[in-house]
Every structure is written in C-alpha cells, then in structure tokens.
Amino acid sequence: MTAEGLLTPDYIFESSWEVCNKVGGIYTVLSTRANTLQSKFRDRLFFIGPDLWQGKENPRFTESDNLCVVWKQHAMRKEGLKIRVGRWNIPGEPIVILVDFQPFYAWKNDIYGEMWNRYGVDSLHAYGDYDESCMFAYAAGKVVESFYRFNLTPKDKVVFHANEWMLGMSALYLQYAVPEIATIFTTHATSIGRSIAGNGKPLYDYLFAYNGDQMSRELNIESKHSIEKQTAHHVDCFTTVSEITNTECRELLEKPADAVLMNGFENSFVPEKADFIGKRKRARTLLLRVASCILGHELDDDTLIVGTSGRYEFRNKGIDVFLESLNRLNRDKRLEKNVLALVSVPGWVGDPREDLLERLNSMDHFDTPLECPYITHWLHNMTHDQVLDMLKYLGISNRREERVKVIFIPCYLDGHDGILNEHYYNIILGMDLSVYPSYYEPWGYTPLESIAFRVPTITTDLAGFGLWAKSLPGYSGIESGVEVLHRSDYNYSEVADGIKETIVNFSAKPLNEILQIRKLAARTAEKALWKHFIKYYYEAYDMALRHVMQRLLN
C-alpha cells in the first residue's frame, strides 16, 4: 500500500500495437509515460509489442541477450512462443517483449469461438486489420501468462494494461486464463464514435439517440465494436482519456469508464535556452527556404508561420476548416503580416520533388514558381487528394500578390523525408502559431506538443486537451497560449471565422506580447506533465487490484 492507501502493483505489463512501432498518438502516450513509471517500478515494468521488424533493424528497439534469459528459453522451447526481449529506445529504456503473432493464425477460428462462447465477442464480420490485431492481442496474453506462471506467484500483485480495441482480446484472455492478474483496458477513441464522425454524421447532438450496436452494423465495423464493448464490460478497470470520450463510452458502449486517464507529456526533449533559440532560428530558415523555392519568390523573416499536423483525417482533425479559414484570411485586409501556412499530414506520398531538390541544392534565388506550387512531395493520388482538392476548390494558388501561402507536406517528418530531413519536433520549433480545430479528438497531443515548444495553439472544445486547457484557472484564450474555440456539429463557418480572427489579432501583436504568450503557453504545458497526471494511473491500478482481490475471494 502507498501512503495514500492505494494498492500498488509489483509488476506492470502494458501492451499496444504501437510499442516500438510509431503509428499515431498512442505511441506518444506510452513512450512519454514510460520514463515516469520506470523511475518508480524500475525493471518491473514490461511493454509488449508486435514483432513487425523481423530480419530488419528496428531503430526503436535494442535486443538484449541478458534479459529474462531463462524464461525466454522456456517460453520459446517449451511453449512455442516466438519472442524477442530488449529495451525500448526512449527515456527510461523500459524492457520490451516483441512477439511474433503469425503462428496463432492456425488457431484463429478456435480463438474466436472461445471469445464468442465466453464473452459474446462477434468476430463473424471481421475484415482488414481485425484478424491481425486480435492474433497479436492473443499472443500478448499468452506471453503475459507464460511470464506469470514461470516467474511469479499469487502473492505478486500484477496488472496488465491493454490499449485500444486492438488489444481487447489479450485482456479478455487473461481474465479467464489467469484471473490473478488485474486487467485494465483503455479506449483512446471508441471505434464506433470515430467512425460516425469520420463518415460525416453528426455525432454530438445525436449521441444520446445512437445505438452503438446498430450503428456498428450500419457502418460495417461490427467486430471492432464488439471486441471493444465486451472488453469494456468485462475487465477489472475500464478507462478512457477524457470526459468527451467518456460520454461516448456511456452512450455507445453502454459502459462509462471507471477512471479517466488524461494523457500527460514528457518535456525532456524540449531544448533549453540558447539551444532552443538556435534550433528555432534554423527551423524558420529551413521552412522559409523550402517555401521560397516552391513559390518562386522570397518570404521575409517577419512571415508568420502557422501550421497544422497529425493523422490525415480530413474532417475529424479539422483540416477542412483550417483550409477554409486560410481562404478567408487571405481576403482579410486587417492581416498585418504575410502568412506561411503548413499542412503537415502524411498522405499517400510518393517521391520527393526532384525540381524542388535541385532548387534547394543550388542555393540560388528564384523568380518563377514550380509546377504545383503548394506541395513538397509527389503523391500517388495527386488527382484524388482531399487537401489538394480543397485548395483547388477554394482557388488557393499561392500567387505572389496573395498574403497567405499554403504548403502541403504530405509525409512523416522523421528526418529522412528527402526534402526537410528534420524530425517533427525540430520543425515545430520554427512555427509562430499552430491550429488544430478538431471535430473528433479524444485528447489531442499535437496542440499539447505545440505549447510545450512555446508555440501558441488554436484548438476546440471537442478535443479533450482543449476542454482541459479551458478549465484551467486564469484561462484567457490565446493570451494564455491556448485559444479554445467552441465547436459543434453545425458551426463549421463560425469556427473558420474564429481561426481567422485569432490569426489576424495575433499578427498585429508586438514582439513583447508574443514573447509573453509563448512563455505562458509553456507554463500551461508544464501543468500536463506526467508527474501531475500519473496519479490517475495509480488510482486505476488500485481499482483493478481490488477487483481481483474480490474476485479471488469469491
């Protein structure tokens, strides 16, 4: 027991498709939280991920011949598990077990039959990534069971934490195979809620009237919804990441979360002082240079650099309303500065533009724009891309006389994209303002990351982060580093105007005010560090462990 009277686990196992495998925001959740947990639990914290890099070097994983040697040999030789053990190359360097789940396909029907008989999980309508996810989840459950049986005893308090519907089957398997282990399940976004929003249906005004099971059939995601719903109902502690998503859970999964685990942040990689200033200057120089080479004219140093980024969900992430706001901004006579707007979302990217590379390598200045003067890389679907389609529809063409220029960067900024060749965190430093006007955003790491790098942000109250930021004492809009716009099912135009007005007002602010806003943005980010939010996890561990104690007594 801790000083607060909470039961504390002796061992924690946590599994996600994004362990050592960066796909989206869950990677950030796990990889930044790991250091805080590792400092308390040391090497009694284990992450389990899919072994997707067989035969290739995984830059995020370092295999070890010295970790869990005896158990690993037993698991591989006696139980037929195909695993690799090593460390995750992140702060804290926690132990990671990567598992090859391919062998479990041979028992897929038996596994699905067992899940139907025990929990009513409907896998009949599965397609796409359902099989892959569930086979990995089942394999992860078998790994935890093997480790527990070989190394631990019923006296050890053990927690297993499954993330998203993809890992639901691991929690359900352990629930009956090893009832001594406490299970926690976190849905970061309900599959049915995301699908309703992504299909253009009004989510929020009609949430009370939707039936999740019925909608899952209509939108053809019955199996994903089924595993998510049944896991939520059967684990020892069901959690989500914000009150917004908790409302979804209550209405669409028919089960409110037992605890809300807000997503914290680790700021150890934010540069300090002189290093920060130097990196910011280099980022701005790079962004302005790339834009100038595309546009065929120079952008002055006073250009206001505004950007959005994240997963390519055109409506859910608010990319559409951001582009609409830029179109309106371009016609606003009050705009005090030239604006360079960056849309950095990974599309169906092809090759880096050779004509752009030639200009970047020449160090010359140019007075004619490139063909398609609004994109850094060619796409495989140039004629069917939503960003390019909307730019064309709005008539945004980046003419020299226009004050607002829009550049689409359709790739992951991993340092090897072929044009910018810098990591995202080095690029965001160069921005003056970020915009994330999400319609569907259970939490919202991108605006939180932005303010951590002292870049003020615009978001909405349909993002968990936005709702949290607005609730803080002293909140005063963009003056405090975060502008939270009200967003609903039907106020698209008002949101576009709100973004435009915020940028116009920001462009007129003197340097001393902007520096103060940047300082307050960083101060807000500090309130979301894991050292503040980790307490909610300890409460969830306690709840799950107490549930196990009760189960074993019965």
Give an overview of the whole structure:
It is built from 19 helices and 17 strands. It is α/β, with parallel strands linked by helices and 554 residues long. The strands form 3 sheets. A 9-stranded mixed β-sheet has the order 3-4-5-2-1-6-7-8-9, sandwiched between helices. A 6-stranded parallel β-sheet has the order 14-11-10-15-16-17, with helices on both faces. Helix 11 runs parallel beside helix 13 (386-394).
Secondary structure topology:
Blueprint: E1 11-15, H1 25-41, E2 45-50, E3 61-63, H2 69-77, E4 83-88, E5 95-99, H3 108-119, H4 130-151, E6 158-163, H5 168-177, E7 182-187, H6 191-198, H7 212-218, H8 222-234, E8 237-240, H9 243-253, E9 259-260, H10 273-295, E10 304-309, H11 319-330, E11 339-344, E12 349-352, H12 354-362, E13 377-379, H13 386-394, E14 404-409, H14 424-428, E15 433-435, H15 445-452, E16 457-460, H16 464-471, E17 482-485, H17 492-507, H18 511-526, H19 530-553
Parallel strand pairs: 1-2, 1-6, 2-5, 6-7, 7-8, 8-9, 10-11, 10-15, 11-14, 15-16, 16-17
Antiparallel strand pairs: 3-4, 4-5, 12-13
Helix pairs in contact: 4-5, 5-8, 7-8, 11-13, 11-17, 15-18
